[in-house]
Design goal:
heterodimer, A: six-stranded mixed β-sheet, four-stranded antiparallel β-sheet, B: 309 residues, two-stranded antiparallel sheet
Chain lengths: 257, 309
């Protein structure tokens, strides 16, 4: 495999009418890295995730996954290349059992698994995310937290190289949060590359190697987690400021670490 | 779920039985035979409709378009080719138009697709009419094909059995799993690697092919066909409401909806010929209001209620 970045985002742009949700966004993610994508609500993080996973078409710019341009491809092709994701508003297949939800992940990836092989692997994955012995429970009956676990198991079933987690840790209680953080660390140790959209700062601190911070569609900071989170531009973006527009523009060049 | 399946299978078997028993009665009179043909016609059409619209949730009013293409192809070619050849040509035209329409419209969402599919029947009708007026200078054709009502009956029964067979095979395959995922959440489907556009197109074409064949097989029933008869939009609405009444996700759902409604429409059109369309409309509204989830959904609710009591 090449030593280059797993993912390279170059001058990516997406506008909804007059609103530029993602504006000339560029960053790289190396193999085995966990990158935090941060920013206040409405700053374009989820849109960026949707552009990378192919859920939305980009207006311009490039998304390069393992040396191959993927923006412009259909979402199912991007998924089959090895980019899996979870959703900000959890999406499980409610009419199916937990086991079936994960088997679906195995079924349609390249070299798809079915039958007993898929079943055994799915049971193992369910155990790994903390849903052991829930195999036959209807996914629609899961609690919010367990639905999130199931969503992660389904994404993992694709055997992805890049995992996009959109606020996957939001809403967990302190114990669950520690379990969730440990789980993501395990995935990283197993060689997975992760992009994390997250507001839970404990998780960002303990998981992310680097962070990219967005505000109003523009990248305002990038660098090691500790450095970025103490950056005055970032603090201002989160806490609000009278002349945040000026800061956004200034921060674009100035706050790069 | 398993008990529901049993009940539905039972219901389906009863409807199938009801249709099939018409066959021995055929000697008894043309009325029963004719009713049997109508039951089969709508049974096949509703099942084909649900095949596409059940998992994709696209509400299609294109039934009349494809049914009409089949019927009209027979009216044009019926006397110049052997029967199997006529059916094949009709099938080919239906599939070609379905591919064209599917490729260009399946990206439309919701209400836009409904309107387009409704317009399609009208569009094809107008084109055919224009052609007949300007080129052949004779709108309307006589169908003199030596195929009896009884032969139509058996052909439709064979078609129904094939369609149900394809449905079962499809549901058991990987495609069936993909359809369930699409039916649950299309966004998730794409992000687990399912090519939803291709699958939707495939289903649309398959469903249209069955509708085209139904029209072709039925054409000899009329001795005279013009575009107004072949592309009658009423058929689109009737098939839609039958499939919705029965439930679109279970094998025998559409049949369970088609049988009672065919019988009801039969009674209404015989007794109230002048008010038939009004009564049809009232029936539609009553079904949407009182049985919004279809007979299958109703059974599910009744059983859940019984279990919880």
């Amino acid at each position: 495999m090449s030593d280059g970045p797993v993912l390279r985002v170059e001058a990516l742009r997406k506008a909804f009418g007059g609103l530029v949700a993602v504006n000339e966004l560029s960053f790289e993610v190396g193999r085995g890295e966990i990158i935090g994508l941060l920013g206040p609500n409405g700053s374009g993080k989820s849109t960026a995730m949707n552009l990378i996973s192919g859920a939305l078409p980009s207006d311009s710019g490039r998304v390069i996954f393992k040396g191959r341009q993927i923006n412009g491809m259909a979402a199912h092709r991007i998924a089959r290349l090895g980019v899996a994701r979870t959703f900000q508003l959890v999406r499980v297949l409610e009419s199916m059992t937990c086991l079936e939800n994960v088997e679906v992940g195995f079924a349609f990836r390249p070299g798809g698994l079915s039958g007993n092989a898929a079943r055994a692997e799915s049971v193992a994955l369910l155990g790994r995310v903390g849903l052991a012995r829930r195999e036959n429970m209807a996914a629609g009956e899961l609690t919010y937290i367990d639905a999130k676990r199931l969503e992660l198991a389904r994404a993992m079933a694709l055997a992805p190289e890049l995992l996009l987690l959109d606020e996957w840790l939001a809403g967990l209680n302190p114990t669950e949060l520690q379990q969730g953080i440990a789980l993501i660390k395990q995935l990283r140790d197993a060689g997975l590359t992760v992009i994390l959209v997250e507001h839970v700062m404990d998780a960002v601190h303990s998981l992310c190697d680097r962070c990219v911070v967005m505000n109003a569609g523009i990248k305002i900071a990038e660098g090691s987690t500790a450095r970025v989170l103490s950056d005055p531009h970032v603090v201002k973006a989160y806490l609000g400021d009278d002349d945040s527009d000026d800061d956004g523009v200034a921060g674009r060049g100035g706050a790069r670490a | 779920m398993s008990r529901l399946t049993v009940v539905l299978a039972g219901l389906g078997a009863c409807s199938a039985l009801a249709i099939a028993t018409a066959a021995p009665l055929l000697q008894g009179g043309d009325y029963w035979l004719s009713l049997g043909v109508t039951l089969l016609q709508y049974g096949v059409l509703a099942t084909a409709w649900a095949m596409f619209s059940g998992p994709t949730r696209y509400v299609s009013l294109a039934t009349a378009a494809f049914f009409g293409i089949g019927a009209y192809t027979v009216a044009v070619l019926g006397e110049s080719m052997p029967w199997a050849g006529v059916l094949l040509v009709a099938l080919g035209i239906g599939v070609a138009i379905a591919l064209l329409v599917g490729l260009s419209t399946l990206r439309l969402s919701g209400v836009y697709f409904v309107i387009f599919s409704f317009g399609l029947a009208e569009l094809v009708k107008q084109i055919v009419t224009w052609y007949e007026v300007n080129v052949t200078r004779d709108v309307g054709r006589h169908v003199f094909i030596d195929i009896s009502q009884r032969q139509i009956y058996w052909q439709l029964l064979a078609l129904l059995v094939s369609v149900l067979g394809v449905w079962v095979l499809m549901r058991r395959s990987r495609l069936g799993l993909a359809l369930r995922v699409i039916g649950d959440d299309e966004v998730v489907a794409t992000h687990v690697g399912i090519d939803t556009s291709r699958i939707k197109l495939m289903l649309f074409v398959l469903s249209a092919a069955v509708m085209t064949l139904t029209g072709a097989v039925l054409a000899p029933r009329w001795t005279y066909i013009d575009p107004e008869i072949a592309f009658n939009p009423q058929i689109s609405f009737q098939v839609l409401i039958m499939a919705l009444l029965g439930g679109t996700t279970r094998l025998f759902g559409p049949l369970a909806g088609a049988v009672p409604l065919v019988l009801l429409f039969e009674v209404l059109s015989v007794n109230f010929p002048n008010y038939f369309l009004i009564l049809l409309g009232v029936t539609f509204m009553a079904i949407i209001y009182f049985v919004p989830n279809g007979i299958a959904g109703l059974l599910q609710r009744v059983m859940r209620h019984r279990r919880s009591v």
